[in-house]
Amino acid sequence: MCLSTKVFQATPLLSNSDLEELVALLKEGSVAAIPTETVYGLAGELFNEAALQKIFRAKGRPADNPLIAHIGSMGDLGGLSEGPSKLFYRLADRFWPGPLTLIAARSKRVPDIAAGCLPTVAVRMPSHPCALQILKRFGPLAAPSANLSGRPSPTAAAHVLEDFEGVIPLVVDGGAALFGLESTVINTVGDIPVLLRPGAISREAIEEFLGMRLSSPEKGSEGASPGMKYRHYAPKAKVILVESEKELAALLKEGAYVPDHLTAQTLYAELRMADLLQKSLIAIHVDAAMRLDEALMNRLEKASENYHHILDLP
Q: CA 221, 49, 56: angle at the middle one, nearest 5?
């Protein structure tokens, strides 16, 4: 625990003095919340096991849930992976910086704790100007979402403070996250790319670029990517999905919190708002447009009580 949590403003970049204070803090093995274009990340030095342990402890994160390595330049890859595939470089060249995480064979330098003891490493280069500023100055950082494990991810600095005020020493406020959902994760080890987690870059955009279909994860591979193995993104309130306006109106009369015009960008903020209002139930109307958003439906599956029932899925 720390006595207070500092908040630095990034508009859109950190001042030189704030940047140097943040870098010094990270070099000491501490952690800090930083903005990215997807969600805020709880950042610590990738090659410092003590710093990584602080991330896991602060979040209450299961030890076998791998972290994503964030880099500021392609030159950082050498310390992370011994020979990324041609597919890796092709996707990185097209979508980086941006909300795409690529899985590659990891180097021995990457600590087991960062990779969940897997032979692979997850890497991405964020496009948020402040995140890039920090990474270019400091080097590779592990940065899972800056929330308590299982809770809705933070898309604003205020969300980070809800979970970590007085727990972590520093939060960098870079404004509202542009996408509001975590990055897409693609496994590039092997000949066929595998979509491990849908995200801000759609399956269709990647398949169109590659000229080939993305494969689905095999059974038993749930631990290969963050966000696959455990319940995620859930508020304290119970989340129920409904199919009709009539059902929605009935639950609204019973006091349920009903988000208006829910999108991928607003999902986590709405889930957190329900908790702030101390609502015990959140009712979400799943319309035709939402069903077409694979990433949004993936997050609703993780957060809701009746996803498989309402959508008639196995």
A: 60
pLDDT computed for residue 233 by the predictor: 81
In degrees, rounded to 5, the angle at the alpha carbon of residue 234 between the alpha carbons of residues 233 and 238 is 155
Give how far Cα 26 sits from Cα of 3, 23, 309, Å.
18, 5, 45
Residue 162 φ/ψ, nearest 5 degrees: -55, -40
Q: Is residue 285 a contact partner of residue 245, using CB atoms and an 8 Å limit? A: yes
Q: What is the pTM of this model?
A: 0.93
What are the CA-CA distances from residue 4 to residues 24, 29, 161, 164, 166 (Å)?
18, 18, 11, 10, 5
| Amino acid letter for position 239 | V
The pair phi, psi for residue 216, each rounded to 5°, is: -100, 155
Are 98 and 127 in contact by the 8 Å Cβ rule? The answer is yes
The 10s digit of each residue's pLDDT in 283-294 is: 999 998 999 999
Domains of the chain listed by start with CATH number: 6-224 (3.90.870.10), 238-310 (no CATH)
| Other Cβ atoms closer than 10 A to 142 | 28
Among residues 97, 110, 115, 114, which one has the least CA distance to residue 36? 97
Q: Is 29 helix (H, G, I), strand (E, B) or coil?
A: coil
Return the H-helix or E-strand segment holding 113.
helix 112-115
